[in-house]
Amino acid sequence: MALLDVQDLSFQFPGGYRALDRISFSVGAGELLVISGKNGSGKTVLLRCLKGLYRPFSGSITMQGRPMESRDRHAVGLVFQDAESQIVGQTVEKDIAFGLENLRLPAEEITRRTRDAMETLDLTSHARQRPRTLSGGEKRRLTIAGVLVMDPMILALDEPFANLDYPGVIQVLEKIVMLKEQGHTIILVTHELDKVLAHADRLMLMDAGRIRAVGPCDTVAPLAEECGVRIPLGRIPLEEMTWLKD
Ligand SMILES: Nc1ncnc2c1ncn2[C@@H]1O[C@H](COP(=O)(O)OP(=O)(O)O)[C@@H](O)[C@H]1O
Ligand SMILES: [Mg+2]
Fold this sequence. Notes:
This protein is of the alpha/beta class. Helices cover 29% and strands 24% of the residues. The chain contains seven helices and ten strands. It has helices at 43-51, 83-86, 92-102, 107-120, 136-148, 166-181, 217-220, and strands at residues 4-12, 18-27, 32-36, 58-63, 66-67, 76-79, 154-158, 185-189, 202-207, 210-215. The chain has a six-stranded mixed beta sheet with strand order 6-7-8-3-9-10, with helices on both faces. Strands 2-1-4-5 form a four-stranded antiparallel beta sheet, with helices on one face. A hairpin with a 2-residue loop joins strand 4 and strand 5. The two termini are 34 Å apart. The site of magnesium ion (MG) has 4 residues, from helix 1.
């Protein structure tokens, strides 16, 4: 059984604009699914539906065979594209602990989970630092830590490489690959396929609110250009589409 199953999902904005049109796909446990498509194709709207921030117009979202409901709002941990807007704490440590504090967990558990998340994302040495003084890559890692600490079943990353310099991309990509190796299930939205495709299990291409194709990267990647996503195909073999050096 798939971990996440989306069937015939449609979403419409109040003005009547249909941003998602009968989307069906699934995500297996431990999988890294990369979703791509040009601006406005519906990627962010889809993640917001999965997170439960938008109520679908029709269709279903099931997690481990059960319909997702509002009480499952921590099932999907969503890291927004605009990392800065997601940072609320005065320090790195406080920011990561923020979500746990809202759950009113015992203090020791909050401390332990915050420490673990800081270690996972290599932020321990920044624990007392003010988030706004972090580099772009560190900020992005902080937002991932703040979501991971909530122990979501799926980690959803919206354009995790946007506005990062080269070292920032490497830092974030290294962590994404490490989390996958640890068994995390990840949905990664990006149009920068050359940075990450080598690590993806499957690729899904969206166009105008619909799925153009979803499947193994080698069969789906050749359709990227007609969906408005440029990849240096032909020049770089699929397994070399990563910014990580080995
Ligand atoms: N709040 C909104 N109201 C109306 N239309 C919106 C809103 N947010 C996004 N859209 C439209 O929905 C479509 C999909 O947007 P989005 O999911 O953000 O695209 P992307 O694939 O770039 O993430 C776009 O055409 C966008 O203009
Ligand atoms: Mg978007």
